[in-house]
Amino acid sequence: MNELDPLLSGVRLAVFDFDGVFTDNHVWVNERGEEAVRCCRADGFGLHRLREVGVESVILTTEAVPIVAVRARKLEVECRHGLADKLAALREEAERRGVSLEETAFLGNDINDAACLEAVGLAVVPADAWPEVAGLARWTLERRGGEGCVREFCDAVWAAQR
After folding, report:
1. Which CATH number covers residue 112?
2. Is residue 29 helix, strand or coil?
3. What is the mean pLDDT of residues 77-102?
4. In what order do the strands lie in the sheet with 122-125?
5. Fewer beta carbons within 10 angstroms: which end of the chain, N or C?
6. How many folded domains does the chain comprise?
7. Which DSSP category does 58 fall into?
8. Residue 101: what pLDDT?
């Protein structure tokens, strides 16, 4: 048992940022202005494991591009994008599910995630999180954004709860 196990075993809602978490924070843009991002396929199996143990999940992002919704559909995860206030959306999602913020984990990587990281019971960042938010984390993952950090987090929650 490690020091995070009590926190991991109490997670009922996992909330994720998108860029820099599901992606490596890079974007390709073609001459028509269409964007493409790189994601880790292993994250999908991790999200499946969360569902196995009854942990709900949602993606909250300020980005308003269709690729976020497309990827979320593929992963079978709820998604709210184009958000002006992530913290308000986080509170709404937890309340809608009857989950306290203390039972909520948030995985984010940048300064627009700071308020959410400060509000939850388990603040998590990928290995390459920006310094401004890295210090807010209760757990810094070993994997970088877009390189399986979502899977690393999900596997740990799954292991602690099964």
Report:
1. 3.40.50.1000
2. strand
3. 97
4. 78-80, 56-60, 13-16, 104-107, 122-125, 139-140
5. N
6. 1
7. E
8. 98
